Task: inverse folding
């Protein structure tokens, strides 16, 4: 139920988004009056100083948390119309994530980590596409290794494989290179963008690295919880 | 340690409490203290009751029990020493009221009874208790209230004892020298000794206990004892107050020890939970500690903050535990009510202090090591979070815990050696059972292939921490097993014992049939078509020597059954080998007795083995003052549970010639014909009928009560098991929250996560139940086949309901405890970590 005909093609859309939390010191406004439309296939960087609210915004757009005000539409569905399980289903089907701190499950091998979203969605043969994707990110020989046994860059490559294995419409990445050295980070970025191009994914990327932001088609700048031009 | 530091420690404690950091520690501590202290209160009260009442219970300062009248010289000697003396005869006899009859323990007292203490009676059932200064007159009988109910009588009704009628005028509520043993279970009737002649219930050879009470000055008592002891025969028992009343004690004392040891299992489990809680507590204080160190706090300072917190925690937790224990012991007394004396003094303060001390000991043993580790947190941790203090040394953790446990156990066993043996045995058992649990866990991995992702994820959680899982399977498995065994013993064991008896198995024993009544009694049974075994003569005699050696030399130390041989035995004579007996060595004599030497005996083979008696050995029997020697010419195997009269020693008639005898037999009378017992007794007042059905009922009810009490203690064990589960969940909660959030980020629904949790805890419980089933089946098999000689049947329902119940119970608890994994939004969790 699109409200504006011209926004039908927007795959992520935020209207009047705000987020406040109660703290001991009173109410803290983290985000305020955010309007944002991101078209399918677009790559957008969210930039801003540390503490400006980037991660919070990303989390809201991806449906990992609930907004205090405003509405979000993700892949054609209004998030406020969904309950937590509905959002989980939507995430599983349409959304991929890459985090700064990799967030692999320590008890699962590289292959099992990548298989996980497929299995959660009930795919019969999860291991073939998962292994193929790990091959694609250059870890074909490390399928049975556990996260502990992998370097930071390798872990992030597993995480990227896990994010792309469902062929998501939207990929959210929160400072994916933040925990990596420059050279490794560079290779991760290359991988991310090339997979993105292959699958035609919409990429929403939080970073404070201007060079990285420059590789995106558009940058949204946050300052103290507001979008600044 | 300054006052300011104490106060700061208290404030930190409050803060941690509010943050929920200490709940599991506290809970586990309370469980441990409650479990041990409840037992402590229980035994304290029992002991007090025994000490307080022992003189009263004995009815004198000294009690001599004898199967016969004692020599007049002994009484003369007591009189010489100015000791007062009273006589009490105790014997089982059947009493009647109208058509109703009941086997009672008759106690015939003389006018001097009791020398110490006072009789307490009531004028109506459950009426007010009053002190009675006289004994029953020759027309009265005073009875326990049970007897009134059993016979459907009221005060003022008439009771038949043998050939006399006595009016019931008092309800006995407390009687000095209550006696005990087998017939203590039978309700008591107290009569005047002078009625015995008229009642005509006592015959030579009847089973009577002659009790002689003495009282007087300590020196005279001591002199009497010193003089008497060397002359006593093994069948005599001399008790003074200091030895107390053995009959109240033995069984209860053992039950008390078992309860105590069972409560230690609860302590051990709770200790594990405490250790886990303390570890988490310490881990969570690494950062705070690092900051305090940055701010200049030295190691001593750090400890001065944390140790008082432990102390506070210990005092509060133990206090609550002791209070709960005080309530719990009432439940124990209530459960065991019918088995215990009615007036039990209140508990003293000692168990309270011991309870507090146990609490602090447990806390020190299990929680101190992780907290001590805080001393070593490096200040640099503020910059580099991965810097943690050195992990604890294993010996420190286990050493402290073992020491604490050994200290507590020592309290129950009272012996260092026993403590060491029990701990060693327990360690071995744990090792074996632990391997079993590990095997089961390994087996369950076969499920890995066949289940969906949610289940697999949940099961992975179990397999990922094998040690933790094994210890939980063990903890719950053992608890379930103990509970299952109790249920089994109480229900199935007794049932199958009864149903496996052949039909028409005798259910009544008759003793005290006089020789002149013998034919008439047999005729009565035949005439009424009552199936019965032979009538056997009974002669009382004692085995004195084996092959010229005193019997004492032949009895192995620790041979529990030997007491039966020491006392007077029931001997018999016959020319026909009884059914259910089989000659295993030597030869049975022909009808009419042995042709050459008539002084021979046929001996039961297992007793022969125990005493090292071989074919051809000469045994010396004493009958009062007379001694006879007989040669063993055959050994027999006896089927003891045949409910026929069975004998260790069978003689040819000539060998026992001239000894006073009575006859005994057993017969089967179906329930609906029990009324005929009354006619039987009317016709033969002196006989004693023991109703096995009723005896079984009593055994069943005693067993029921004791097992209930044990189950009550097991409840604590189960609670402690849940505390461990909870602590383990807490310890892994951060990880679980994190993974839960991640999984939801990846699209897992809450239903999937829920089934993952259910799978994990359900499998845990199921495996524990399976282990319990294996263990219970094995022990039950041993019990049936080795101890009770019963045909074993597979306890298959157990294999269904134990794993099922385990899966349900633990699945539910684990599921509820992990509910918060689903509650928080994924972003909040991911941000927090
Ligand atoms: N749940 C919360 N409670 C309190 N403060 C929060 C919460 N979530 C975010 N914040 C605060 O909001 C601000 C923005 O956070 P974040 O979105 O993580 O910023 P960025 O990713 O741009 O560094 C920070 O100051 C952070 O501390
Ligand atoms: Mg951020």
Result:
């Amino acid at each position: 139920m699109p409200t504006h005909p011209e926004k039908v093609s927007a795959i992520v859309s935020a209207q009047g988004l705000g987020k406040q939390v109660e703290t001991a010191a009173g109410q803290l406004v983290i985000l305020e009056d955010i309007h944002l439309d991101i078209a399918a296939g677009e790559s957008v960087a969210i930039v801003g100083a540390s503490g400006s609210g980037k991660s919070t915004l990303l989390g809201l757009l991806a449906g990992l948390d609930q907004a205090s005000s405003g509405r979000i539409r993700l892949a054609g569905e209004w998030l406020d119309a969904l309950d937590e399980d509905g959002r989980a289903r939507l995430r599983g089907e349409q959304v991929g994530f890459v985090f700064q701190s990799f967030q692999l499950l320590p008890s699962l091998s590289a292959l099992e980590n990548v298989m996980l979203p497929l299995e959660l969605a009930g795919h019969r043969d999860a291991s073939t596409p998962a292994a193929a994707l790990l091959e694609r990110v250059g870890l074909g020989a490390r399928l049975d290794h556990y996260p502990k046994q992998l370097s930071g860059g390798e872990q992030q490559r597993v995480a990227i494989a896990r994010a792309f294995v469902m062929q998501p419409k939207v990929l959210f990445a929160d400072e994916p290179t933040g925990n990596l050295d420059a050279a490794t980070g560079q290779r991760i970025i290359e991988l991310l963008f090339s997979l993105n191009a292959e699958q035609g994914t919409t990429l929403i990327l939080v970073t404070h690295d201007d060079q990285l932001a420059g590789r995106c088609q558009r940058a949204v700048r946050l300052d103290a919880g507001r979008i600044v031009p | 340690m300054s006052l300011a530091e104490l106060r700061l420690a208290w404030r930190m404690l409050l803060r941690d409490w509010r943050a929920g950091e200490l709940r599991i520690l506290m809970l586990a501590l309370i469980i441990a203290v409650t479990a041990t202290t409840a037992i402590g209160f229980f035994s304290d009260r029992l002991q007090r009751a025994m000490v307080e009442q022992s003189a009263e219970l004995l009815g004198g300062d000294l009690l001599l029990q004898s199967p016969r009248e004692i020599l007049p010289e002994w009484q003369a000697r007591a009189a010489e020493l100015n000791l007062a003396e009273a006589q009490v005869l105790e014997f089982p006899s059947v009493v009647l009221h109208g058509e109703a009859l009941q086997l009672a323990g008759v106690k015939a007292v003389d006018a001097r009874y009791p020398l110490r203490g006072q009789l307490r009676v009531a004028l109506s059932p459950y009426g007010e208790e009053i002190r009675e200064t006289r004994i029953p007159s020759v027309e009265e009988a005073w009875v326990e209230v049970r007897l009134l109910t059993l016979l459907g009588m009221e005060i003022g009704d008439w009771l038949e004892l043998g050939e006399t009628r006595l009016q019931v005028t008092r309800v006995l509520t407390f009687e000095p020298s209550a006696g005990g043993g087998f017939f203590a279970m039978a309700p008591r009737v107290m009569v005047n000794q002078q009625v015995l002649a008229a009642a005509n219930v006592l015959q030579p050879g009847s089973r009577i206990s002659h009790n002689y009470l003495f009282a007087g000055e300590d020196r005279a008592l001591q002199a009497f004892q010193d003089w008497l002891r060397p002359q006593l025969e093994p069948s005599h028992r001399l008790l003074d107050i200091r030895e107390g009343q053995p009959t109240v004690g033995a069984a209860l004392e053992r039950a008390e020890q078992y309860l105590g040891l069972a409560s230690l299992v609860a302590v051990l489990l709770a200790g594990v939970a405490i250790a886990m809680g303390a570890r988490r507590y310490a881990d969570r204080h690494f950062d705070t500690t690092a900051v305090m160190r940055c701010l200049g706090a030295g190691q001593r300072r750090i400890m001065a903050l944390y140790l008082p917190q432990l102390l506070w925690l210990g005092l509060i937790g133990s206090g609550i535990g002791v209070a709960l224990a005080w309530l719990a012991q009432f439940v124990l007394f209530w459960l065991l009510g019918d088995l215990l004396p009615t007036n039990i003094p209140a508990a003293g303060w000692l168990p309270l202090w011991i309870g507090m001390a146990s609490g602090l000991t447990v806390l020190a043993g299990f929680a101190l090591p992780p907290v001590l580790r805080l001393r070593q947190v490096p200040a640099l941790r503020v910059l580099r979070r991965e810097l943690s203090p050195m992990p604890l040394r294993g010996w420190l953790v286990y050493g402290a815990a073992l020491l604490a446990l050994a200290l507590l156990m020592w309290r129950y066993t009272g012996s260092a050696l026993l403590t060491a043996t029990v701990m060693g045995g327990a360690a071995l058992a744990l090792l074996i059972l632990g391997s079993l649990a590990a095997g089961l866990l390994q087996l369950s991995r076969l499920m890995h292939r066949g289940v969906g992702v949610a289940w697999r994820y949940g099961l992975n959680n179990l397999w990922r921490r094998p040690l933790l899982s094994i210890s939980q399977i063990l903890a719950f498995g053992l608890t379930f097993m103990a509970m299952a065994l109790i249920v089994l013993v109480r229900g199935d064991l007794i049932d199958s014992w009864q149903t496996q008896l052949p039909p028409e198995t005798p259910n009544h024993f008759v003793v005290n049939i006089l020789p002149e009544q013998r034919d008439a009694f047999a005729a009565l049974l035949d005439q009424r078509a009552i199936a019965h075994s032979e009538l056997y003569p009974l002669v009382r005699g004692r085995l004195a020597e084996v092959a010229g050696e005193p019997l004492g030399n032949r009895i192995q130390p620790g041979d529990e059954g030997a007491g039966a041989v020491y006392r007077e035995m029931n001997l018999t004579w016959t020319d026909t080998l009884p059914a259910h007996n089989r000659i295993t060595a030597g030869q049975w004599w022909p009808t009419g007795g042995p042709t050459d030497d008539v002084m021979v005996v046929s001996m039961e083979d297992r007793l022969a083995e125990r005493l090292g008696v071989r074919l051809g050995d000469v045994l010396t029997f004493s009958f009062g003052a007379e001694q006879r020697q007989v040669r063993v010419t055959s050994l027999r195997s006896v089927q003891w549970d045949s409910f026929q009269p069975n004998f260790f020693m069978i003689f040819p008639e000539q060998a026992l010639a001239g000894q006073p005898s009575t006859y005994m037999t057993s017969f089967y009378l179906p329930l609906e014909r029990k009324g005929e017992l009354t006619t039987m007794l009317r016709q033969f007042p002196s006989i004693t009928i023991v109703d096995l059905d009723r005896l079984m009922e009593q055994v069943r009810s005693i067993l029921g009560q004791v097992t209930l009490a044990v189950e009550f203690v097991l409840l604590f064990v189960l609670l402690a098991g849940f505390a461990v589960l909870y602590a383990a969940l807490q310890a892994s909660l951060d990880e679980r929250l994190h993974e839960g959030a991640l999984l939801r980020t990846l699209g897992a629904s809450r239903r999937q996560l829920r089934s993952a949790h259910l799978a994990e805890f359900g499998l845990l419980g199921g495996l524990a139940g399976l282990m319990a089933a294996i263990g219970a089946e094995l022990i039950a098999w041993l019990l049936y086949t080795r101890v009770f000689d019963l045909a074993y049947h597979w306890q298959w329902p157990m294999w269904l309901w134990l794993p099922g119940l385990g899966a349900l119970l633990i699945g539910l608890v684990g599921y509820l405890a992990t509910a918060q994994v689903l509650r928080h939004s994924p972003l909040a969790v991911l941000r927090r970590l």
In short: The longest helix of chain A spans residues 182-199.
